[in-house]
Amino acid sequence: MPSPNRAWLILANAYLRVTELRPLLDSFGSVDEIVAQPRARLAGTGLADEKCVAIASPDDAAIDAALAWLDADAHHLVTWGGEDYPEMLSQIPGPPLVLYVNGDVDALHLPALAIIGSRNPTQGGERNAREFARHLAGQGFTIVSGMAQGIDAAAHRGALDAGGRTVALLGTGIDRVYPAVNRTLAHDVAAHGALVTEYPLGASPEHWHFPERNRLISGLSLGTLVVEAARRSGSLITARLAGDQGREIFALPGSIHNPLSRGCHKLIRQGAKLVETADDIVAELGPLTGHMRGDDAGYDTLRRCLDHDPVSIDELEKRSGLTIDQLSSMLLILELHGEVESLSGGRYVKKEPLQA
Q1: CA 270 to CA 321: how far, in whole Å?
Q2: How far is Cα 165 from Cα 156, in angstroms, rounded to an integer?
Q3: pLDDT tens, position by position, for the chain (356 residues)?
Q4: What distance in Å separates the CA atoms of residue 51 and residue 94, rounded to the nearest whole number?
Q5: Angstrom distance (rounded) from CA 354 to CA 57
Q6: Residue 45: how many CB atoms within 10 A of its CB?
Q7: Contact predicate 178/168, CB 8 Å
Q8: CA distance linking residue 188 with residue 195, whole number of Å
Q9: Domains parsed from the chain with CATH numbers
Q10: d(Cα 329, Cα 306) in Å, to the nearest integer?
Q11: Closest residue by Cα to residue 238 from 208, 262, 216
Q12: Which helix (H) or strand (E) holds 197?
């Protein structure tokens, strides 16, 4: 019996887009039926010939290699329309057809902030990225970035410093680390979050992959923070994509004598929110978690376990039966809505909800 992932892998290796998948589904009903069609019938839907060839005559060795990769623990294929597909990415123009994930799929469903910037930052910029990431990850946000040297790497490391989650969107196949100097960092990210890409195994770091994957960095996140960037940089492209996707844009101001501050100052002039502390970001993102705020039984259970005396997350785990991962996300969302206050030592106290 064929693997349920085989058909999706064939379509992914053909670089099929969601906009191209929809008419194929209208014509043939399912992905299994699509990959069973001869080239001529696929061409009859208007699909480009090279993609018809790639689907009708797939590279079986490449598909088998991907299936073997998926056999390993913590390796996942998340498909468009599936239950594990991130809601945030389903909302963006040009959502990815599939995501190859090495790590925890749940990390793709938690409130996230993207932190991006220069590959060659100043020491101060690198320090700011790490400290903002550490503080925000400590409050429960997943930190999203692109695994590049400089600000990206500092953001991932800051989240790891806090014992929080971080997600890296790659511009290569999931089996490659680029740049190679970040190999150890990539291992740590996979262990405490996830490495994610839409590109097939073995895909090399083509120059056009990186601006394309930037839409996923901003798309997976409630907001994007630019720490240092030149006036013309990939970070400003990501910020523009965030704006197009209806996401918040934050920028850290800097010295007028620092060329890497000019991109941030440009964003601020264009309407990005100037931030001086991580709490500025928390205050802005609170209202944006409304669609994530749960009114299901799990949240009701958590609310009953909270009171006006401080309680540790370990005690909440015992009282509620929820896992630490579930509680971390749910407590963050309730905190952003003013129902919970976090105290030192990992303790929480109940508050009255904010009035609209």
Answers
A1: 47
A2: 9
A3: 457 899 999 999 999 999 999 999 999 999 999 999 999 999 999 999 999 999 999 999 999 999 999 999 999 999 999 989 999 999 999 999 999 999 999 899 889 999 999 999 999 999 999 999 999 998 889 999 999 999 999 999 999 999 999 999 999 999 999 999 999 999 999 999 999 999 999 999 999 999 999 999 999 999 999 999 998 888 999 999 999 999 999 999 999 999 999 999 999 999 999 999 998 998 888 766 655 555 577 888 898 999 888 999 889 999 999 887 778 778 877 877 778 888 877 789 988 654 43
A4: 17
A5: 58
A6: 15
A7: no
A8: 10
A9: 1-71 (no CATH), 105-288 (3.40.50.450), 293-350 (1.10.10.10)
A10: 15
A11: 216
A12: strand 193-197
CA-based nearest residue to 179, from 150, 214, 149: 149
Cβ atoms of 143 and 165 closer than 8 Å:
yes
Contact 273, 249 (CB under 8 A): yes
Burial class of residue 61 in the structure, from the number of CB atoms within 10 Å of its CB (0-12 exposed, 13-18 middle, 19+ buried) = exposed
